[in-house]
Amino acid sequence: MKTPLRALLLTALAIAATFGLDPFRNYQLATTAACFAAVAGLTVLVGLTGQLSLGHAVLMAAGGYGFAFTASAVDGPWPLALLAGLAAAVIVSGLLGLLLGMAAARLRGPYLAGLTLALVIALPSAANALPLGGDQGARAPFFAVPEALSALIAVEQWHAWLAIAISALAVTPLVMLRSGRAGLRMRAVLDDETAAKLSGVDPGLVKAGAFVASAVPAGLGGAILAVATQQVTPGGYGLAFSLLLVVAAVVGGLGSIGGALIGSVLVVVLPWVVDQLVGALPADLGQRLNGNLAVLLFGAGLIAMTLAWPGGVARLLDRLRAARPKRRAPAADTGR
Amino acid sequence: MDRLVFLLSAGLARGAVLALFALSLVIVWRAARVVNFAQAAMAVTAVYAAFAVTSATGSYWAGLATGLATGALLGAAAERGLMRRLPHHAPLPGIIVAIGLVMVLQSGLAIAFGPEHRPMHPPFSERPFMIGGVPVLSPYDLFVLIAAAAVMGALALLFSRTSLGLQLRAAAFAPETSRLLGVRVPRMVTLGWALAVATASLAALLLVPTELGLNPHAADLLFVNAFAVAVIGGLDSPVGALLSGIGVGLLVSLVTGYASASAAPLAVLGLMTLVLLVRPGGVFAPKEARTA
Question: Of B91, B96, B272, which has the smallest distance from its Cβ to A306's Cβ?
Answer without folding.
Answer: B96
